[in-house]
Amino acid sequence: SAVISQKPSRDICQRGTSLTIQCQVDSQVTMMFWYRQQPGQSLTLIATANQGSEATYESGFVIDKFPISRPNLTFSTLTVSNMSPEDSSIYLCSVEGGRAVNEQFFGPGTRLTVL
Amino acid sequence: QKEVEQNSGPLSVPEGAIASLNCTYSDRGSQSFFWYRQYSGKSPELIMSIYSNGDKEDGRFTAQLNKASQYVSLLIRDSQPSDSATYLCAVRKAAGNKLTFGGGTRVLVKP
After folding, report:
1. Is B43 in Cβ contact with A44 (below 8 Å)?
2. Residues B22, A32, A108, A74: is their CA dihedral positive or negative?
3. Please, are residues B105 and B7 in contact by the beta-carbon 8 Å criterion?
4. pLDDT along chain B (111 residues), means of 10
5. A3 to chain B, closest Cα gap in Å
């Protein structure tokens, strides 16, 4: 499977600020996704990151709060904007395609704490 | 009704026994089914995928799918303490589509 890295691995942020999370894959992939996992909960899809076009957001998630970029087939960013303590979660990117045909693999995650 | 349902557990099994995990889903259009293992503080790791009715075996893991009953299960044979983790069931309609996750089943394997 592809090797996926995320930066930062964790961060502690102040209310009202923004954080950009990076996801880098070691090979070209077709699909990239961003998930959120709140404490003690399962995974919820935020959006599908589309290469060269606007991301596709799931119900309850909006571009102003979670802007996403995907400039090429190996890289994507998720920004968590105007953060509040409710945004404290683990944010995960996943990839599919390339070497990961028909299956999704997850990056190591970014643990975000908002004070 | 949740789209994907799992018993939250914990499922406690003695070392060497078989752990049996169940998952039901509501969308009959679902075509692909996955089991992920997630250790505390780590990201989900794909352990099994299954696309057709029946059983699929991989080492100590067996996935079972019954589309008519909208049911997928995971058996872990010869359970080891290292199998203690949360197991997430995920389903989707087609390749490249989003995964919908169940709430996960926590498994505890006791020596």
Report:
1. no
2. positive
3. yes
4. 90 97 94 96 95 96 97 98 97 84 96 91
5. 13
